[in-house]
Task: inverse folding
C-alpha cells in the first residue's frame, strides 16, 4: 500500500480509502467487520462514512447504522492507526433543525456521530453537500470551533461546486478559520467532467486533497458487466448510474479499453480504473466500496499498478466527454 499526504496537511492516508455506505444492508455487521479487518491488513488506514448512512436501506433504517457498525469495530482497534472520515448535513431527526449545516445542527450531529463511532475525535469531518439556507460563515465558524476543541482534526467538503469551495476557502482565510483540506467529488472514468472541468485545477492550485466517490461507477468498472451480459450479481441494480451506463454503448468502449490495459498488466480491470485516477494531480485516495472480503482483495493491488503515459492517454481519449 502507498500513502499520500491529504492535500497540504501532514496527515498521511492510504491511497485507497474504504467506503462504508453499504454497511448494514449489502454487508451485515460481521461481514462489515471482516471487510474492515481485511482492509487494515492490506494497509488501508483510511475509512469513510456519513452520519446519514444507510437511512435508505429499509423502513427500519433511520441513519447512523454504518457509524454504529464502525464503532463496534473501532473500539477493539488501535485508534491511532486509523483515519476516520464522516459527514454531516443530511436529515437525522425530525423538526426544522434535524438537517443542514447550521451551528445548531452540526453541534448536535457531531455528538451523535462520536457516540455511535465510540471515539472522542473524528479525523476528517466533511460537509456532505451544500446547505443554501445557512451562511457559509456560520458553518465554517462552527467547524472551526470543533477543530479547536479537539473533537475534529481536519475538515473537508463533498459535492461542492468550484465557486462555493473557493468562497469557503476565502472565508476561512479571512477569519482565520480551519479550512476545507479535502474534497469528495463524484469521479470515475465514466464520470469525469463534474470534477475535471473546474474543481481539479482549484484543488491542485489550493493544495486540496481529492478523495473521489464511486470510482468504480458503482461496480460498472469491475468487469462484472459486458456488452453481451448486462445482468450481474449486484446489489446496485436499482442505481440510476448503473441503469444509465448499461444502456450506453460508449461506456462499454471505455470498459473494454480499460480491460485491454488490465490484460497487459495481468490485473483486474477495476485496478486499472483506480490507477488511472491515482495518476492525476491532487488525487489522494479513491473511496472504494466492497460488500465482501473477496471484492476488496480484487481492488487493493491498485496502488501498485503504474500505467504508462500512452495507457493514460488512451484512457483519457476513450472516456472524453464523460
Ligand atoms: N459523498 C457522497 O455523496 C458519496 C456518494 C456515494 C458514495 N460515497 C462514498 O464512496 C464510497 C464508495 O462508493 P461506491 O460504493 O459507489 O463505490 P464503487 O467503488 O464505485 O462501487 C462499489 C460497488 O462495486 C461492486 N464491486 C466492488 N468491488 C467489486 C469486485 N471486485 N467485483 C465485482 N463487483 C465489485 C460492489 O457492488 P455490487 O457487488 O453490489 O455490484 C460495490 O458495492 C461509499 O461507501 C461512500 O463512503 C460518497
Result:
Amino acid at each position: 500500500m502507498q500513502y499520500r499526504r491529504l492535500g497540504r496537511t501532514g496527515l498521511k492516508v492510504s491511497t485507497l480509502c474504504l467506503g462504508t455506505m453499504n454497511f448494514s444492508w449489502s454487508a451485515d455487521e460481521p461481514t462489515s467487520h471482516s471487510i474492515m479487518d481485511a482492509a487494515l491488513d492490506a494497509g488501508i488506514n483510511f475509512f469513510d462514512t456519513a452520519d446519514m448512512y444507510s437511512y435508505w436501506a429499509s423502513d427500519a433504517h433511520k441513519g447512523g447504522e454504518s457509524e454504529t457498525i464502525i464503532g463496534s469495530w473501532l473500539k477493539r482497534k488501535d485508534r491511532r492507526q486509523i483515519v476516520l472520515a464522516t459527514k454531516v448535513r443530511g436529515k437525522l431527526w425530525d423538526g426544522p433543525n434535524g438537517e443542514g449545516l447550521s451551528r445548531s445542527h452540526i453541534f448536535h450531529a457531531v455528538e451523535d456521530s462520536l457516540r455511535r463511532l465510540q471515539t472522542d475525535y473524528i479525523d476528517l469531518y466533511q460537509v456532505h453537500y451544500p446547505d443554501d439556507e445557512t451562511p457559509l460563515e456560520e458553518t465554517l465558524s462552527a467547524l472551526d470551533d470543533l477543530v479547536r476543541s479537539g473533537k475534529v482534526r481536519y475538515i473537508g467538503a463533498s459535492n461542492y461546486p468550484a465557486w462555493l469551495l473557493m468562497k469557503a476557502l476565502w472565508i476561512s482565510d479571512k477569519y482565520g478559520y480551519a479550512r476545507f483540506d479535502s474534497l469528495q467529488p463524484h469521479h470515475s472514468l465514466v464520470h469525469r467532467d463534474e470534477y475535471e472541468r473546474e474543481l481539479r485545477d482549484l484543488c491542485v492550485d489550493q493544495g486540496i486533497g481529492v478523495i473521489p466517490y464511486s470510482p468504480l461507477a458503482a461496480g460498472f468498472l469491475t468487469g462484472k458487466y459486458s456488452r453481451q451480459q448486462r445482468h450481474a450479481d449486484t446489489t446496485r441494480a436499482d442505481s440510476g448510474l448503473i441503469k444509465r451506463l448499461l444502456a450506453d454503448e460508449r461506456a462499454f468502449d471505455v470498459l473494454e479499453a480499460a480491460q485491454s490495459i488490465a490484460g497487459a498488466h495481468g490485473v483486474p480491470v477495476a485496478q486499472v480504473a483506480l490507477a488511472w485516477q491515482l495518476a492525476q494531480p491532487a488525487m489522494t485516495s479513491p473511496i472504494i466500496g466492497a460488500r465482501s472480503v473477496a471484492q476488496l482483495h480484487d481492488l487493493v493491488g491498485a496502488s501498485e499498478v503504474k500505467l504508462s503515459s500512452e495507457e493514460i492517454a488512451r484512457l483519457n481519449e476513450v472516456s472524453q466527454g464523460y
